[in-house]
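Chapter review: from sequence to fold.
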Amino acid sequence: MTSTADYAHLRAQLDTLTTEAFRPDLADIDRRSTLDIARTMNDEDATVPAAVARRLPEIAAAIDAIAARMARGGRLVYAGAGTAGRLGVLDASECPPTFNTDPSQVLGLIAGGPSAMVTAVEGAEDSTKFAVEDLTGIGLTDLDTVVGISASGRTPYAIGAVEYARELGALTIGLSCNADSALAAAAEHGIEIVVGPELLTGSTRLKAGTAQKLVLNMLSTLTMIRLGKTYGNLMVDVRASNEKLRARSRRIVALATGATDTEIETALSITGGEVKNAILTLLGNVDGPTAARLLDAANGHLREALKAAENH
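The token string follows.
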């Protein structure tokens, strides 16, 4: 059971966090007009990209390190509690349809397990033990990358995940929204996006959550660009799992090649619907099996495969 002394210690910790700071100038916000509150909130949100921009060198260094691990077969694993955990799961779940990654390649772990995505699991975020169990459960190795996510930078689950991963030799990244955080200190790469006090005191699903979403978008998207999952700014590894994505696949092939509809349909047919392969058959003037072989030799990088096709 948590004692009064424990609560006093925790309160003292919270008092030092920028994300928990009280804004006296907003103390009357509930008495303002809805439009005025909306403008205030929008003004607050507009400061987030600038806070992210101040940490772009750290973000870029982390991305290069992630890509190097993943190129050797490693996985990208997000670990967080509450909003931070949900954002990690969201980013991970978008990778298979966007980049045709295996579902096990980018993973999101949330304190309390899958049910915590929709229902708060009391006490889960306070356990480093749960973090170790979750990472053990996925068979974490030294090729993997673990990104601990915590707005406060003090969440035991996120810190525990990073500390355990580092002990194993995995790459570790600590993403928080407070300066000098324990999470960033525990990780090899610390990324601290200091967005300041929230519109609602301590509600870190607001600016802090937006900042985390922006950074996670960068971590996954730029890593996939480095891994050859795109051709220019086209998602050539998109998985056509529904009608919208099938239409998008054809549009991507058209944008990349300028081919006719008939040519595109033929190319997709002989490559099993693989966009990247279809583009290679059209631009490299090779057949389906050759396209697959050239892409495999180029580790999936279409530009390298196109160069090889020129000499084929």
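Two observations follow directly from the output. Residues 207-226 form the longest helix (20 residues). The radius of gyration is 22 Å.
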